[in-house]
UniProtKB/TrEMBL annotation:
Cofactor(s) this protein requires: Mg(2+)
Domain EngB-type G intervals: 49-234
Keyword terms of this UniProt record: Cell cycle, Cell division, GTP-binding, Magnesium, Metal-binding, Nucleotide-binding, Septation
Gene Ontology CC: one annotated term: cytosol
Keyword Cell cycle: yes
UniProt similarity note: Belongs to the TRAFAC class TrmE-Era-EngA-EngB-Septin-like GTPase superfamily. EngB GTPase family.
Source organism per UniProt: Kinneretia aquatilis
Pfam families, A to Z: MMR_HSR1
Protein's name in the database: Probable GTP-binding protein EngB
HAMAP family to which the protein is assigned, alphabetical: GTPase_EngB
The keyword Ion transport appears for this protein: no
Taxonomy, superkingdom: Bacteria
Length: 263
């Protein structure tokens, strides 16, 4: 029967929706970001067992600003008008103080013309090594200026991670930054062009997403917090459930009423 009144309806709880964390929970989690350490070389990075999410992209794309916005702190990561500001890999802890559950890594930007060639090559090597071999790396947030779209350097970087993205080892989120500089039509065009390009990387195992983002207008902030929270917590769950004998019997948890009839 169709109900035509505007009375609020009693809706049966949807177990999936009920389990999804609220904006408050996921933003509360990103707000816990705090500085852990800085390193100029890979060998100086501390070993890490937690899910690590790296923020990468061209110099000036807005990486540090995005981290500050997610953390709701003005100067956690050093954002600047001067491209090439972030010269080291800066690590941040997230989660409870006594039991951190994820790491953010703010990486130096690439493609800044004024950096000397030798320094540029050194950094490209560090970045490539980091993306290819860092075991704890479980997510990459590629920040792209929405007005420029994916540049050749971004595409080269994607090549370094593509094998691990395709097999699902690394999740990928492309953030189209500074979306406040685009009108609706331009934003749609940037979004679909990026999604189109990423089509080749997507497999059944992969987790590849695109989001428009503006630190200035706070656009996409909660969406990004949801994605990163999900990544961090699903990785923890996978690790926690490593011993299959510890897992509860899923059949035992299915309520009789919803258990499918035996064939
Ligand atoms: N309009 C607008 N400007 C932004 C936004 N996000 C960042 N910016 C500006 O872009 C410039 C670069 O931002 P950063 O966050 O320092 O960029 P980065 O990617 O960390 O740069 P490097 O450290 O050089 O790699 C700064 O002037 C920011 O204020 C945004 O959402 N909208
Ligand atoms: Mg920076």
């Amino acid at each position: 029967m169709t109900n035509t009144t505007s009375e609020p309806q009693e809706i049966a709880p949807n177990p999936v929706a009920a389990a999804a964390p609220t904006d408050k929970v996921v933003l509360g989690w990103t707000h816990t970001a705090r500085f852990l350490t800085t390193a100029s070389q890979l060998v100086h990075l501390p070993p890490n067992e937690l899910p690590e999410i790296a923020f990468v992209g061209r110099s000036n794309a807005g990486k540090s600003t995005a981290i500050n916005t997610l953390a709701q702190q003005k100067r956690l990561a050093f954002a600047s008008k001067t491209p090439g500001r972030t010269q080291h890999i800066n690590l941040f802890h997230l989660g409870p103080k006594d039991a951190p559950n994820a790491l953010f890594a703010d990486l130096p930007g690439y493609g800044y013309a004024a950096v000397a060639k030798a320094a540029k090559l050194r950094w490209q090597k560090v970045m490539a090594d980091y993306l290819e071999v860092r075991r704890s790396l479980s997510g990459v947030v590629l920040m792209v200026d929405s007005r420029l779209g994916l540049t050749d350097l971004d595409k080269q970087l994607l090549e370094f991670v593509t094998p691990r993205v395709r097999n699902g080892e690394i999740k990928l989120l492309v953030l189209l930054t500074k979306a406040d500089k685009l009108n609706r039509k331009e934003a749609d065009a940037a979004f679909f062009a990026t999604q189109d390009f990423l089509g080749d990387i997507v497999t059944e195992e992969s987790d590849v997403r695109v989001t428009l983002f503006s630190a200035l207008k706070k656009q996409g902030v909660a969406d990004v917090a949801h994605i990163l929270y999900e990544w961090a917590h699903s990785a923890t769950l996978v690790k926690a459930s490593f011993n299959p004998e510890d897992l509860p019997d899923p059949a035992a948890q299915v309520d009789e009423a919803v258990r499918p009839a035996a064939e």
